[in-house]
């Protein structure tokens, strides 16, 4: 039998505010355990929360970017559960009246058409602390440690809607995650570093017979922060659920955990429902009124979104869509391109050189573009030197490597390394003579009308000159030579 798949994400994103959601403690990821804490974020009796306005601004900015309706009134609620990393015994979250509802994120659907994935709600809550179960620092394996530095860092929860344009395949799920991650980085509300747990997903998945209106029971896989593992887990779940149904069984509604080593999901607990959390409005926090002027300012100052940037790069600079997609995938790359484009006469060359040459160096060094020493001005200068044929592409590669290592500008490097191209006819002719002496056949073939040996001879001259010969010049000398004979 064939099945339809429904996938739905709840994504938690740590906001990049300077301070926590309800106190003045700094948001620090690499600090000593329990060095960024206070009575409020460790839940001491009598300590009262004060809402961080920046976190509200970031939440609404996200709501606007995800096409949500922004509620004029919003409310915080206590979500009760007991866990050692949650000192108050409840998490301050939102239940009724979240900041944003009924939005969407547009992706490319499997049929190649734009597809608007429904976003049910986005709300703001506090993160929990972190349990450390095993560490070399342990005296005894009988204890677990808890670090409250993360406790009460602002956490945005983005809940996709499984009833309104849900994701229908693993491929769509991947596109949604990539687009969401990209969008949140573009609007600068979070660094979204997966390895630091700043972007974490719970994923729901169910299957039902193709065309049926009765949906299957969902299983939820908790707390995933690697796109690859999410895809592996979804693949496993589709297989597991299909097998259960084929055998005449019923899929349990439950929460499962993905084992990264065995690539298998295992039951964790039966899924809790909202009543289990005994949500109640938090009496320590008043309702938040969002005035229209605040929203208008946020709209006005909204950074360019990925699709806008993509279209602009294509239209304004004539970049091919396939290249533009690569150049806009990461906000920092797109900003680098954006800084170079007005300074370069040949934008296609600029795009190519970022994608082929600069990416290779970044990759080899395993650093992101924002840590690269090459400035937009210097990179643009290099591209212009190539466009003006002042240096060959071969030499430009050497120059770029040096720029990448030292941060020097291209002109200084060309001078320092004596990389100025050889365009002196006399010197080039001399090298060419040596080459022809070793390869007399090539010349004969050219005279007989063959064109390939021209490239061969040019290649040989290039090699002998260590890439410094001006290719146009050699070509014209070869042609002049064979014409005259
Ligand atoms: Zn604190
Ligand atoms: Mn949550």
What does this structure look like?
This protein folds into 3 domains: 3-297, no CATH class; 304-417, no CATH class; 425-483, Arc Repressor Mutant, subunit A. It has helices at residues 53-65, 170-186, 227-246, 292-300, 306-317, 321-329, 331-340, 347-365, 376-387, 393-406, 410-417, 425-438, 440-447, 452-464, 471-484, and strands at 3-14, 69-70, 73-74, 77-80, 90-93, 100-108, 114-126, 130-132, 145-147, 154-160, 199-209, 219-224, 254-259, 264-270, 280-281, 288-289. The mean pLDDT is 92. Helices cover 40% and strands 19% of the residues. It is built from 15 helices and 16 strands. The chain is α+β, with helices and mostly antiparallel strands. The strands form 4 sheets. The protein has a 9-stranded mixed beta sheet. The structure holds zinc ion (ZN) and manganese (II) ion (MN). Residues 20, 23, 25, 37-38, 40-41 line the site of zinc ion (ZN).
Shape: elongated
How many extended strands? 16
How many helices in DSSP terms? Answer: 15
Distance between the termini: 76 Å
Mean pLDDT over the residues:
92
Q: Are there runs of 5+ residues with pLDDT below 50, and where?
A: none
In this structure, how is the largest beta sheet organized? 9 strands, mixed
Structural class by SSE content: alpha+beta
Q: From the alpha-carbon coordinates, what is the Rg to the nearest angstrom?
A: 30 Å
Main sheet: strand order: 2-6-7-10-1-11-12-13-14
Helix content: 25-40%
What binds here, in terms of ligands, is: zinc ion, manganese (II) ion
The tally of structural domains comes to: 3
Per DSSP, what share of the residues sits in E-state strands of 2 or more residues?
Answer: 15-25%
């Amino acid at each position: 039998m064939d099945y339809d798949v429904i996938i739905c994400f709840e994504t938690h994103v740590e906001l990049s505010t300077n301070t926590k959601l309800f106190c003045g403690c700094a948001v620090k990821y690499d600090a000593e355990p329990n060095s960024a804490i206070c009575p409020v974020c460790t839940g001491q009796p009598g300590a009262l929360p004060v809402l961080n306005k920046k976190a509200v601004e970031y939440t609404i900015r996200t709501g606007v970017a995800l096409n949500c309706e922004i509620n004029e009134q919003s409310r915080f609620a206590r979500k009760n559960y007991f866990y050692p990393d949650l000192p108050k015994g409840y998490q301050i979250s939102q239940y009724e009246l979240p900041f944003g509802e009924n939005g969407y994120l547009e992706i490319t659907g499997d049929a190649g058409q734009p597809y608007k994935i429904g976003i049910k709600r986005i709300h703001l809550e506090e993160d929990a602390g972190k349990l450390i179960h095993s560490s070399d620092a342990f005296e005894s394996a009988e204890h677990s440690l808890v670090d409250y530095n993360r406790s009460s860092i602002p956490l945005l929860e983005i809940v996709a809607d499984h009833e309104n344009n849900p994701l229908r395949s693993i491929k769509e799920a991947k596109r949604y995650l990539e687009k969401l991650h990209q969008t949140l980085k573009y609007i600068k509300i979070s660094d979204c570093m997966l390895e630091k747990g700043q972007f974490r997903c719970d994923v729901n998945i169910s299957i039902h017979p193709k065309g049926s209106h009765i949906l299957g029971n969902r299983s939820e896989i908790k707390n995933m922060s690697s796109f690859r593992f999410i895809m592996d887990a979804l693949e496993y779940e589709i297989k597991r659920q299909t097998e259960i149904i084929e055998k005449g069984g019923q899929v349990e509604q439950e929460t499962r955990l993905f084992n990264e080593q065995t690539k298998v999901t295992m039951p964790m607990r039966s899924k809790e429902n909202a009543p289990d959390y005994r949500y109640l409005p938090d009496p320590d926090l008043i309702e938040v009124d969002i005035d229209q002027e605040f929203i208008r300012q946020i709209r006005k100052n909204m950074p360019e979104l990925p699709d806008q940037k993509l279209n602009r790069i294509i239209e304004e600079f004539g970049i091919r869509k396939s290249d533009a997609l690569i150049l806009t995938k990461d906000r920092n790359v797109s900003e680098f391109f954006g800084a170079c484009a007005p300074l370069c006469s040949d934008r296609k060359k600029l795009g190519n050189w970022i994608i082929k040459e600069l990416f290779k160096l970044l990759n080899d060094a395993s650093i992101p573009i924002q840590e690269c020493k090459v400035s937009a001005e210097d990179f643009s200068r290099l591209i212009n030197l190539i466009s003006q044929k002042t240096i060959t592409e071969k030499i430009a590669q050497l120059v770029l490597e040096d720029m990448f290592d030292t941060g020097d500008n291209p002109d200084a490097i060309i001078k320092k390394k004596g990389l100025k191209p050889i365009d002196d006819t006399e010197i080039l002719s001399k090298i060419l003579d040596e080459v022809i002496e070793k390869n007399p056949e090539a010349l004969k073939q050219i005279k007989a009308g063959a064109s390939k040996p021209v490239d061969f001879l040019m290649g040989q001259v290039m090699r002998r000159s260590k890439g410094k010969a001006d290719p146009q010049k050699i070509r014209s000398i070869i042609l002049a030579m064979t014409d005259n004979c």
